[in-house]
Each structure stands twice: as C-alpha cells, then as structure tokens.
Write a structure and sequence with these properties.
This protein has 231 residues and is an alpha/beta fold. It has helices at 3-23, 36-41, 54-62, 64-70, 82-92, 107-110, 119-135, 159-177, 185-188, 208-228; strands at residues 48-51, 72-74, 100-103, 139-143, 181-182. Helices cover 52% and strands 8% of the residues. It has a five-stranded parallel beta sheet with strand order 2-1-3-4-5, sandwiched between helices. Strand 4, helix 8 (159-177) and strand 5 form a beta-alpha-beta unit. The longest helix is centred in the first third of the chain and has 21 residues, at 3-23.
Length: 231
Amino acid sequence: MNSNLKKLLLCAAGLFTATLCAAQKPADWANFGRFEADNAALTAAPKVVLMGNSITEGWIGKHPEFFSSHGYVSRAISGQTTSQMLVRFRADVVELQPQVVVICAGTNDIAQNTGYISLEHILDNLQSMVDLARAHGIRPILCSVPPTGDFPWNPGLEPAPKIIRLNEMIKAYADEEGIPYVDYHTQMAAEDGSMIAAYTNDGVHPTEAGYVVMERILPPVVEQVLAEIGR
C-alpha cells in the first residue's frame, strides 16, 4: 500500500470515528441544560425554590401567578427521579442561594423511570439534598409524595402502598431532623391510596382542582419557615 493511500485511509477512519462518537454523545442525563439560561439570567436570589418533577412543573404551568405572587421559583423537570435531582441540586438550587428549598420527589423513582431503586435509597437521595441545602444555609422543606394508584406509562407496579410507606419514612426523618413536612397525600388520597378522581385526569398528575388543594397546604408551611429566618 503506497503512503498516500495509507494516509487517506487513516484520515477516513479518523473522520468515521469522530462522526460515530458525535452521534453517540451521551445525553444530558440530569438535564443541567433545562435551567442553565434561566439560572444565568437571575439578577437576585429567589426567596423559595421548588425542586421536583412533573407534578411541580405542571403546577407552575397551570398557575404561574401562584408562584409569582408567593416569590416561588420552579426548578422542576418532568419525569425526573431523586437521583437526577440530586445530581443537579447544586446547579439548580444551591448556586441560586434561596432562603428555602421545597423538595417534592419520589413518584418517578417508584415508577422506575431510571430503573429500580429501593425506598431506602430514595430516602437517601432526599437526605443528601437536605444535607446540601443545610450546608449552604438553605432551609429545606420536605413534601409527601402525592397519591397514585397506577402509572399509565409503567402499569402494574402497585405504587399506592409503596408511596404510603415512603411518606412514612420521609415524615419520620423530617420529624427526627426538625424539618417541616408538607402533607399533600392525606388530603388528596382516596381510600385505596389512589388520588381522588376529582383531583386528577390520569391518576398521577393533579388537575386545577388538585393544585388548588396543594395551594392551601404549602404556603403556610413556607411562610412559617420564612418568619423563623426573618425573611
């Protein structure tokens, strides 16, 4: 093989490898890009950040005025598990320097959106988010996982009793650590552990009526914490 042909083949192989690597570039698993521009555009620290999944993201989508009137900022991403939230917690909460972070997560873990995870490890992730917040002078608030009877995208997992058990674990940890706990589940659950039909269209995500219930529950807890730290 002459030297020119050999160089040509090596160059072609290099281009093919580079193209293949570009095509297989890993996705932004934790979705840092989702709020990167929003975070950079902030001119002042938000008072309260809500970290969550589609339940919180849908909330600001339906009732943005509720968030703006209370000084809440959403850093929720649909479909995310606590593992993904923990990875981006520094970028989307800590670096914003809020006074309070409200953490509502766990539904998608039980739905196995990023694979199986035990209830104990879900709690571990929540505890790690709390530790990060506290280490940076941010007061954490933990929320119950809202009730769900089944996941339309991954049916048959029987989540209702798992959610009840996880909420018991979150509440016990919150009580032990003196962390405020927001209980959406009690007021939104039917007797079988599913969400009351009037509050949801798909069994998982609240309707406007469901969000109205949540809007009665959350602000008093947040206001109490803000009062304690003198706003």
